[in-house]
């Protein structure tokens, strides 16, 4: 609906679960079937970009990620150490989330900038940097459109973040554009054949297909794919493996926690709980079985890939 100034504003549907945008009071949106488990809105006089809608859904879904920083903090130190960050380096943390990598680098004396799509995570990142007593420049933004000049950073880094950009070629081109020649690009990613990669694939199998051109995030965990994407823009490519251990009382405990914090799981559970509760039961059974394969002594083993390279 319009606000008092006659501008565009959010307009709730009858169930109050979705929000749409309308151009004026006379024009109304029409709800049409999208799939068995989804509905979409047709916007009068508005051209909806599928990629922008996809990013908007990610932005909303990852707003609940903050509690996961307990587990991503130790890997952040490992990535920063492997990247060789030193005092005085200009560092960009892409898709920085709650800022665990950025804050770790800043505590070493680096001049750090953090960027993320989700404002709720940036709020937590600011809190983390204040608590640690370090100064970091925070930006709300998109890895596919980095708001920085060319060749200004000594290190461009990302921990499990840039992989969710829908167009890997665009995201990587931007990351390399802002990196100095001879600078380091470094990132941690999830291999498709291991727990997190398999979990992403399971979640995706229950969701509508993404827009054309969107690549699965776990492709970033395949060294062959990473080499192809980096191409001739870099040299001295190095790969390493590491493990993140996540405590849990049971597979069901981990699943319940993940449903409340991890973007894709949050959106899937919201959707199935509304559209197909029986399918949600089946999904949860399959997810618990997958977790059980990696569960031992109240720990879930989550192995990941670290990639390092130098820009030519």
Protein model, in words:
The chain has 312 residues and is an alpha/beta fold. The protein has three domains: 39 residues, no CATH class; 184 residues, Rossmann fold, CATH 3.40.50; 49 residues, no CATH class. 38% of the residues lie in helices and 26% in strands. The strands form three sheets. Strands 5, 6, 7, 8, 9, 10, 11 and 12 form an eight-stranded mixed beta sheet that branches. Strands 1-2 form a two-stranded antiparallel ribbon. A two-stranded antiparallel sheet has the order 3-4. Strand 1 and strand 2 form a beta hairpin. Helix 6 packs antiparallel against helix 10.
Short description:
With 312 residues, the chain is of the alpha/beta class. It contains ten helices and twelve strands. The chain folds into three domains: 10-48, no CATH class; 66-242 and 305-311, Rossmann fold, CATH 3.40.50; 251-299, no CATH class.
